[in-house]
Known about the structure:
CATH superfamily: 6-pyruvoyl tetrahydropterin synthase/QueD
Strand content: 15-25%
Structural class: alpha+beta
Amino acid sequence: MDSCLACRHLHGHQGRLIVYLSSDKLVDGMVTDFHHLNWFKHFLDTTLDHKFIIDINDPLFETLLPDFADKKNLITCKDNYKKPDLEILKGKPEHLFEMYEGYIIVDFVPTSENISTWLLKIVQEKMSKIDVNVSRIEFFETPKSRSIVYG
């Protein structure tokens, strides 16, 4: 670990995401109607917004999620992430529910590049069902820094 990198510390981001779509043919003059991406906005809003993304292999995993330190009792979700199964917390203080519901667990270091790659796979899988390609995704960590991942 490079000790001069600020990213080694726990931190969050606000971000902006641009999804670029392409197709070999236009339908009604469009690659697709934007409503075909409403599911993705919903995914971002309900799954990632105000959440803490953590790598399941992070050395701090056991410290941050002590009730899940054994990495059992995690719910596997279809878009290649896990979340704590809050059912095991019955009878425990309410603040634990609130804390644990804020975690999204992935199997990669959550850099902007890796998050972009993950999101590209999610969007591409769904959009390919309507013959639309994701040519690239741009994830802006800040107004001046971004990652671009090509499909």
